[in-house]
Amino acid sequence: QVQLVESGGGLVQAGGSLRLSCAASGRINTINTMGWYRQAPGKQRELVASITKGGSTNYADSVKGRFTISRDNAVATVYLQMAILKPEDTAVYYCNAGVPLAFGRVYDYWGQGTQVTVSS
Predict the structure, then answer these.
(1) What contacts 19, CB < 8 A, 6 or more positions away?
(2) What is the mean pLDDT of the segment spanning 56-61?
(3) Using CA atoms in the order 33, 60, 13, 79, what is the torsion angle rounded to 10 degrees?
(4) Residues 6+ apart with CB under 8 A from 47
């Protein structure tokens, strides 16, 4: 089992910055990829950014150049530095941890979500 606890959400004006943190506990050695997803009202959950244990990153086109994902494996924590925030970034942000299983499958763990609201 893996537990994820997010922090760092809040209200910010457009153009501002926020940093989200997600601390993992439990069987952290089983985690490979960690990432951030978001879900806005009436929309599907979407990938924002992900990072593998080795440090390879992947970003949604909408956040490239504005958001930076990083990871500290020593403390099993993933960060999302968000800059030049836009009102369309408003959403609940969820931390994700992927644990590889047999036959190429992945088991996903999720945090409880943290609200990010960007005012215009």
Answers:
(1) 8, 79, 80, 81, 82
(2) 98
(3) 20
(4) 35, 36, 37, 58, 60
